[in-house]
Design brief:
95 residues, 69% helix, elongated, Cell_div_ZapA-like, Cell division protein ZapA
Length: 95
Amino acid sequence: MAEKKSVTVTIFSTEYPIQSDADPDRVREVARYVDWKMREVATVTAIRSATRVAILAALNIADELFKERDASRTIESMLGKNISRLSSTLGEEEK
């Protein structure tokens, strides 16, 4: 098991010490993204509560994740169909 590393990140003007076995640069990158999404929500809404901003940002991030998963499934399905078609074509040529 990898050793946990400590990194301090700032999200929505608050510092958070994070213990993670992930690469510290990756942790900072993810934290910057969360900070950006929270600031985006705060800019386009009248919401000033950090908790509410965080919840809306989390919902936006989850929506992005779900859309990416759906797109990935669509691509996997298309690839599977193409592989089947190519396999059938190759099988017919061997006859």
